[in-house]
Every structure is written in structure tokens, then in C-alpha cells.
Amino acid sequence: MGYEHIFDELEISTDPFALCELRGACDLGLGRDASATLHYILAGEGEIRLHGRPPLQVTNGTLVLVPAMQSHALHSFGTRGEPLPECKPAALNLSRLLAMSDTAVDGQMIALCAHVTVGLRGIADIVDLVRMPLIEHVARARHMRSAMQTLLEEVANPGLGSRAMIRVLLMQCMIEMLRKRLGAEDGSLHWMAALSDPSVWNALRQMLDAPDDAHSVDSLAQSVRMSRSAFAKRFSDAYGSGPMKLLRDLRMRRAGVLLTRSDLPVKRIAELVGFSSRSAFTRTFENTTGQSPRAFRAAQKEK
């Protein structure tokens, strides 16, 4: 499976967009989310602060994809003493903001935000394999700048076919981000190298399809007809980490989705993501996210 085939198979979906206005020097804490989050900065300057990582400097025209389950916050460099930020449905105010000049929103940072899922046909959540944020300055990329401007107009004035149009425009921007980084050999895209190796991909697909199965290095190696040591080395070389670390991350992502979108008991969610013990699941979830499953669920409901 080569890179061209990967691009041919990409699919993308998004939740409804929200418009975040940060007035003055302030933060909008977004915590951890079970989905990847896309931020497009419409105006202002600031940074995206991520737990355990250097902040990402953002300004008008910056597009950032934050991986799932990564705690982060938007921070504005505006004047102090302004009201706290608020988040509203994009359609309510985006037309007004698009009509404003840059000076009309001086002192604010305004971002268009959405949860996104990127996968291959038949395989969801490929974007979960991105472990570091992807950032692109759209103002410097002509094709992306045109696509994002059209996307803004569709969000501001939705009509017949807008959902499909937004999906196509996001796909264009995602492909631009990915192929630019592949050309630069960006380490955050080890997962695409893994997809281009048939043996690694077949094992990876098993974990993506059924993270709750009792996978092990031995069972995965056997499934692709390789020795344990050869498979472990090839997987690590292609993906950048061992298969069991990836499996843990996939299980925690799936658990985050279930905690957010269902009322299932924690014990049942533990079983659905491959844990026979609720206590073992809780320890792993806390080590991964910094929150207990109950605290994570409560935080998601407050958003």
C-alpha cells in the first residue's frame, strides 16, 4: 500500500462548527476530548497550550489539528481585563465577523473549532494515529487559503449541499497538510509509513478494527506470518513505537468516546475496550489522561 493509495482512501467527517471568541488576554481551556479537534484562527494572535508540549504560536490564518485525548487551551494575547471567552454556534455570528475588518476585532482572538474524524474507507479514526499536533499557516498556502475562505462562507450561510461541500474542503486542507509533511519527512506521520508497509498495516488494521481483542505481540506477529522479533522491529521502525503502546492508546481513545457518547457503566466500558478488570482499566485511563473515567465523563458533559 503506497501513499497515493492512502490519499485515495481518505474519508473525513466533522461535528458542527463552533465559534470561539477570546476577548482580551485570557484562556479557553478545552481539556481532553475523545475526538481530534480542528482550530482555524480567524483573527487575533495567541497560542495553543498543550499539556507537556511547547505552545504553538497562532495568528490569523493558522490551522491546527490537535490529536484526540490531548489536553489543550486557546490563549489570547489581547488586552487584559476583558470578559471571559464564550463559545457560540458558528452560524449565529460568523457572517458578522466575516464582514468586519481586521481592526474591528483588535484585542480578540477568534477561532472556528470542530471535532473531526479522519479515516480510510472502512476504517475510522486514522487521525488517532497522529500523536503530535499538525499546524499550517493557511495564509502562506494559496490553495488552502482559498479552500478555507469557501468553507467559512458555507458555515456562515449554510444551504443545500453545504455539509458535503464542507467535507470536501476539509479533505482538501487535510491532504495539503499531510503531503507537505510527508515531503519534509515529518516525524509525526510515522503512521503513514506504517500504512505503506503491508505487514505492519495488516497488524495495525486488526488493532483499529477490534482494539478490545486480546492482541499481543506474539498473536499479531503470527497473524502476519513473521517472527516475534522481526515483527516488533518492523512495527517500531515504521510506526515509531511498539504495537502494545499503540493498542493502549487506541483503547483509551475508544473508552473516551464511550464515556462521552453513552451512559454505559464504567465496568462495561472497561470490558468493551479489552479490560477484564475495572481497576486495571481505571489505572490505565488515569495514567493516560490524568483523570479517572468518572471525572473525564463529568468534564465532557460540562462542555
Automatic annotation (TrEMBL):
Family annotation (PROSITE patterns): HTH_ARAC_FAMILY_2 (PS01124)
GO molecular function: DNA-binding transcription factor activity; sequence-specific DNA binding
Domain HTH araC/xylS-type: 198-299
InterPro entries, per database record: AraC_lig, AraC_XylS_family_regulators, HTH_AraC
A Pfam family matched in the record: Cupin_6
Keyword set, alphabetical order: DNA-binding, Transcription, Transcription regulation
Record PANTHER family: ARAC FAMILY TRANSCRIPTIONAL REGULATOR, HTH-TYPE TRANSCRIPTIONAL ACTIVATOR RHAS-RELATED
Name this polypeptide is given: AraC family transcriptional regulator
Species the sequence originates in: Roseobacter insulae
